[in-house]
Design goal:
alpha+beta; 18% helix; Nuclear Transport Factor 2, Chain: A; elongated; 13 helices; 5-stranded antiparallel sheet; 652 residues
Length: 652
């Protein structure tokens, strides 16, 4: 088909805009490319063809016609033309509309499923007048426009010029100079030299040097909008960014591969150097190293262009390179040719699973098998770095799902992500008796299989006496990571879960699962209502290890302590605690209240737990409680032993 943009151009800027509009109206990428300035689309024809073909092969596009199901209409367009120079014009859309309609029955099955799950609009219309509407969501302060440029006697639309113009006006930056003096290209003697020259220019944020080291046909926009980009850079520097950057390459190992037609690929197998800049505290510098795959910078996180598994490996991101081209007897870097070369390598390797993951719907992938409750299953990840399994619960109840080496999500048949609680280190789902899809990802690079375990959560009745201070003890394991106990209370009561729970998280919630204010966590206050049904849930913090728990409910002070009642406003009280005892009270003020807890003995430090969190010990504890925010407090001598206590509550 040859999307080379070599259609000869239009007779006028307005005709160029009409040609692009007509191409959109007919959903014709070839015609659209012919309306765009040649240097912006040259060599991209094969890439577009490959993308279309691959989309059909993996099932995203219909095999009969790639754009079936999508109808675009461009109607009644009227233009105004502002000639910016002999070779540049601004074409403003004065009137007209663009509309689209999606016929889902003509889409591929995958495209249809993605559209339904994303709840995408199947039709829409944009009028030129929408840009003038103050209530419009379009954040543009002018009528829509395109920038047209003249090349070899014909007019084309420039996407680069158009984007730069919107950037300049939107950011209140200087406009372009449309009769600029072209930058003189400074080709290097060798392809390796061209790469070193380009890297030095980019690393030092030198716009002139970038243009000098690049293919001149691709960077005319930098000449025209030089003031725009220079002002944007100065603003960044005024904010303390990119100041005094000095980038140096001290060592490099480059390999050259001939691509033919005066083009060579330069592979960076190894490089190292130093970068410095002016920070708020003076000059800062870092040593950097690149091993052909991963970039490491001292005191910074490293980044890699490929991983050991999954999408990166499948697509072949295993080397860093740029493409150089011959210009004026020397060599310069061609960003466009580099992108094309990369795309030509990558596109044929794209798979259906990679596409589904890219669009955020891995659950549509072919499952690896079924996940059964009560046993561990090892799942091999696919080429996109994830796996899916089917799950149909035998009954509607809670299930715990764990994995030492993976991340887990569950999706229902309608594409809705199932809600879960994660009180400790275990994901707990309330599932219905319907089909689900389990999606698994590795927790770190280098993992190509994941072990996952699904466990039905058993619920027992809370043993009698526990609410009166008796201890509830037991153990959890990877095979049984969650335990639940159901109970009721005979009267309204505020209690607290004990703190000796070990590596287990405890939470109380109403039996209907609603977080209605009665839910509480380890150590926190639980305001329980007579006749209401509750559940105590215990779960592992570390899903891979066994853990014991010992839970004690404390109603008021519980056994071996003093109940100071409820504090609603300014008051004072005092008492004496034997060794091991605590004083507990509920603070429930109508206005913001301070509560100080100390001892008449200056050598005694009191420590308090406030809603389960400890205040720092050291002298009197001073606790601030907001109005209408009931707060449960327990206090005791920090170093143990018997001691007196004093409580003072007051307004600020």
């Amino acid at each position: 088909r040859g999307l080379t943009g070599s259609g000869g151009g239009a007779d006028s800027p307005e005709d160029a805009a009409k040609a692009l509009a007509s191409a959109l109206d007919h959903e014709d990428p070839a015609a659209a490319a012919s309306a765009v300035v040649p240097e912006e689309v040259r060599s991209l024809g094969d890439v577009f063809d490959a993308i279309e073909g691959r989309a059909q092969e993996v099932g995203i596009a219909p095999k009969s016609k790639p754009y079936a199901g999508i109808d675009i209409k461009v109607e009644d367009l009227e233009f105004d033309v502002d000639q910016l120079s002999d070779d540049v014009a601004k074409v403003t859309v004065r009137d007209g509309s663009v509309s689209y309609k999606v016929k889902e029955s003509d889409l591929s099955e995958d495209a249809k499923a993605i559209a339904e799950r994303e709840e995408l609009d199947t039709s829409g219309k944009l009028d030129a007048s929408d840009f003038d509407d103050e209530d419009s969501s379009l954040n543009i302060d002018s009528d829509p426009y395109l920038i047209a440029v003249k090349r070899s006697g014909g007019w084309y639309i420039s996407l680069a010029y158009t984007a730069a113009e919107y950037y300049a006006t939107g950011a209140d930056l200087p406009e372009g100079r449309f009769d600029p003096t072209p930058t003189d290209t400074k080709p290097a003697a060798t392809p390796e030299g061209a790469v070193e020259q380009f890297a030095d220019a980019v690393g030092n944020v030198d716009l002139d040097a970038v243009a000098e080291a690049s293919d001149p046909g691709e960077w005319s926009v930098l000449d025209v909008y030089r003031r725009t980009f220079e002002e944007a850079l100065e603003r960044q520097q005024d904010q303390g960014n990119l100041n005094g950057v000095d980038f140096k390459v001290s060592d490099s190992d480059l390999k050259v591969e001939d691509l033919g037609k005066d083009a060579k690929k330069v592979v960076v197998e190894k490089a190292s150097g130093k970068v410095s800049w002016e920070g708020y505290d003076g000059t800062e510098s870092r040593e950097w190293r690149f091993d052909g795959s991963c970039l490491e910078i001292d005191d910074e996180e490293s980044g890699c262009i490929r991983g050991d598994a999954g999408t990166w490996k499948t697509l072949g991101f295993d080397q860093a390179y740029v493409v150089t081209v011959k210009v004026d007897g020397g060599w310069v870097v061609s960003p466009t040719a580099t992108v094309v070369a990369l795309a030509q390598e990558v596109v044929p390797k794209i798979t259906r699973n990679i596409v589904l993951d890219f669009f955020g719907h891995p659950e549509l992938a072919e499952p690896s098998g079924a996940l059964d409750s009560g046993k561990a299953t090892t799942v091999k990840l696919n080429e996109a770095g994830f796996a899916t399994m089917t799950l149909t619960p035998s009954e509607a109840t809670s299930y715990a799902i764990t994995s030492d080496d993976g991340w887990i999500d569950i999706v229902d048949a309608d594409g809705e992500w199932a809600d879960y609680d994660w009180p400790g280190g275990v994901q707990i789902y309330a599932l219905d008796k319907q089909p689900y899809t389990v999606v698994l990802y590795p927790s770190e690079e280098g993992i190509d299989e994941v072990e996952v375990r699904l466990t039905k959560v058993e619920r027992e009745a809370l043993p009698s006496g526990v609410l009166d201070g008796d201890e509830l003890s037991g153990s959890l394991s990877p095979e049984e990571p969650v335990a639940e106990y159901a109970f009721e209370v005979d009267e309204d009561v505020t209690i607290s879960l004990g703190d000796a729970i070990g590596d287990v998280e405890a939470v109380i919630f109403t039996d209907d699962g609603e977080d209605d204010g009665g839910t509480c966590w380890s150590g926190g206050p639980c305001n329980l209502v007579a006749g209401e049904s509750y559940v105590l849930q215990l779960s592992l913090w570390d899903e891979s290890s066994d853990a014991d728990y010992a839970v004690t409910f404390r109603g008021g002070a519980g056994d071996g302590g003093t109940d100071a009642g409820t504090i609603t406003g300014p008051t004072s009280s005092s008492g004496f605690l034997e060794d091991g005892e605590r004083v507990s009270f509920l603070v429930s003020p109508t206005d913001d209240l301070w509560v100080d807890v100390g001892s008449s003995d200056p050598d005694v430090d009191m420590d308090c737990y406030v809603d389960g969190s400890s205040y720092e010990a050291g002298g009197p504890e001073s606790i601030f409680v907001l109005a209408d925010n009931p707060t449960y407090v327990e206090c005791f001598p920090y170093e143990g032993g018997a001691a007196s206590y004093q409580i003072f509550a007051y307004y600020d």
